[in-house]
Every structure is written in structure tokens, then in C-alpha cells.
Write a structure and sequence with these properties.
The protein is built from 4 helices and 13 strands. By secondary structure, it is mainly beta. It has a single domain, classed as Acyl-CoA thioesterase, double hotdog domain (Porin). Strands 1, 2, 3, 4, 5, 6, 7, 8, 9, 10, 11, 12 and 13 form a 13-stranded antiparallel β-sheet that branches.
Length: about 270
């Protein structure tokens, strides 16, 4: 599934840490994340994937190991100009694997908790048993249409092109790129893995908005790619909650990561 990259960006290339605004402190086990409009959702609150991405980036830098999986539980909201303190705790560290957690707080209020495993092991056995859907190239896909002005929110920093747009089927796919990002990483994929709620909005017949309760990302092979194909599959909506998965494919068909989420859904009442 080779595709051509989009045109060159006029924005300076940065890594995920700079894109998120993540900052170190004198204590290597504490980082902080200033909450700005650029990492907030259209509702004006910290975008969950940005919180998870910041935790992943900090963990990878502290442990010097790549994330295998990470799970964020979103507990409270926070808005600009708050600052989230990220406190890292290493629960176990072996020869090849580290088990750790990050607590994100604003003052005494817990915003999110992230649990993660990090590590890498040399093995001859490897493989990929599922394939990316056949979709048009990004240049042949229409831009995503938003129902409100994104302002300076995270949506204004993403280039999204709809590849599968079939309301009511529970299946949505879109090409997405982050023009400012130098290269794909576990942290940047965590941001893109927080779009299951978008698929929920297209799966149901009524106008809704939704808030993520969690985000679990599992990282496989990260390869160079400008565009990422986000393949969203909604399993069910029940009791006011929706559940789904998202598969994150590179341009060449490599499965880089999967993510799963549950979200609380509400009737849309306008911006």
C-alpha cells in the first residue's frame, strides 16, 4: 500500500516532546506539561491522547526503553493555562522489561493515570497477520469536514483526509499527518490513537459528542511514514458508552500500533 507523501511543510520539524510542549525538571522522575490550546480538543480541554503521549515520551526518555503498551485512564478534565505535573514511578525493572506508571496532576487533582510496559527483546520470530484496508491515496481523499471552527485546537494541527466515510456502519478510516512532526513515534501514535470517539460519531444515527474514559495503545513496528492510516472499528454502543479499536498503519502497510477506547456519549448540543 505504497502512497506518496503530501507536499513539504513550511513548519519547522520537531519531535513529539516539542510538539506536545513537554518539559523536564531537575528531577528526572518529574516532568510537566503546560496545557495550551494546541493540545486541547474542540471542547477546550486537554486532548486525552496528548496526555498519554506526554507520559509515553517521558517514560521512554527516563527508562531508555521503547513502550510496548500503555494504558491511560482519564479521571478529570483540565483547561489552559493549567500545568500538568507528570510523576513517574518505576514499579519493576528487569533485564529487558520495565513496568512503570505516570500520574498526571494539576495541584492535588489527578487528571490521568498511565500504566505501561517498556522494553525490547531479540527474537527471530516475527510477523504481521492482518492487512491494511485498500483505500485511495491521501491526495485522492477529501479533507475531514468539522462541524465547528477548530480555532487553535489540536484539529488545526492535523491534516486529515477521509478514506472510508460510511455513516452507520461502524467503520471509518482516514489518512492523517502531523505536519510539524519530524518522525513517527510511540508518543505521536498515542495522539492519533485517541480518535475512536470520531468513529463513534459516525457510527450512530444521532448527533453526539463523546469523552474518552481510557486509551490503551499497543506498539508494534514504527517505520518512517509521513501519513498514517487510522482505521477505526466500532464494536458496540450500549448503556450510554461506546467501545472501539483503531489500527494505525504506515504508508507501506506496516501495522505500527493498535489502540482501543471506551467513551461516554452525550447528545450534541452545539459548540
Amino acid at each position: 500500500m505504497e502512497v506518496k507523501n503530501g507536499g513539504p511543510s513550511t513548519l519547522p520539524a520537531v519531535d513529539a516532546k516539542e510538539w506536545l510542549g513537554l518539559q523536564p525538571t531537575h528531577n528526572p522522575m518529574r516532568w510537566y506539561l503546560p496545557v495550551t490550546e494546541g493540545i486541547c480538543s474542540g471542547l477546550g480541554t486537554l486532548f486525552g491522547g496528548c496526555g498519554l503521549g506526554a507520559a509515553i515520551d517521558a517514560l521512554e526518555r527516563v527508562t531508555e526503553r521503547p513502550v510496548v503498551w500503555a494504558c491511560a485512564q482519564y479521571i478529570n478534565y483540565t483547561k489552559p493555562p493549567s500545568v500538568v505535573d507528570l510523576d513517574i514511578r518505576i514499579d519493576a525493572s528487569g533485564r529487558t522489561t520495565t513496568q512503570a506508571r505516570v500520574t498526571g496532576q494539576v495541584g492535588d487533582t489527578t487528571i490521568f493515570i498511565v500504566n505501561a510496559s517498556l522494553g525490547s527483546r531479540d527474537m527471530a520470530e516475527e510477523g504481521q497477520w492482518i492487512t491494511a484496508p485498500e483505500v485511495p491515496l491521501p491526495v485522492d481523499c477529501p479533507p475531514r469536514q468539522l462541524r465547528f471552527d477548530p480555532g487553535n485546537s489540536i484539529s488545526s494541527r492535523l491534516d486529515m483526509r477521509m478514506a472510508i466515510d460510511e455513516p452507520g456502519t461502524g467503520r471509518t478510516a482516514f489518512w492523517v499527518r502531523m505536519p510539524e512532526i519530524l518522525e513517527a513515534s510511540a508518543a505521536s501514535l498515542a495522539v492519533l490513537g485517541d480518535f475512536v470517539p470520531m468513529g463513534l460519531g459516525m457510527a450512530v444515527t444521532s448527533e453526539i459528542n463523546s469523552n474518552s474514559l481510557d486509551n490503551t495503545i499497543r506498539v508494534m513496528n514504527i517505520v518512517p511514514t509521513k501519513w498514517v492510516l487510522a482505521d477505526v472499528r466500532i464494536e458496540a454502543v450500549a448503556r450510554g458508552f461506546g467501545h472501539g479499536h483503531i489500527y494505525l498503519w504506515a504508508e507501506d502497510g506496516t501495522l505500527m500500533a493498535t489502540a482501543s477506547q471506551s467513551a461516554m456519549i452525550r447528545t450534541w448540543k452545539g459548540p
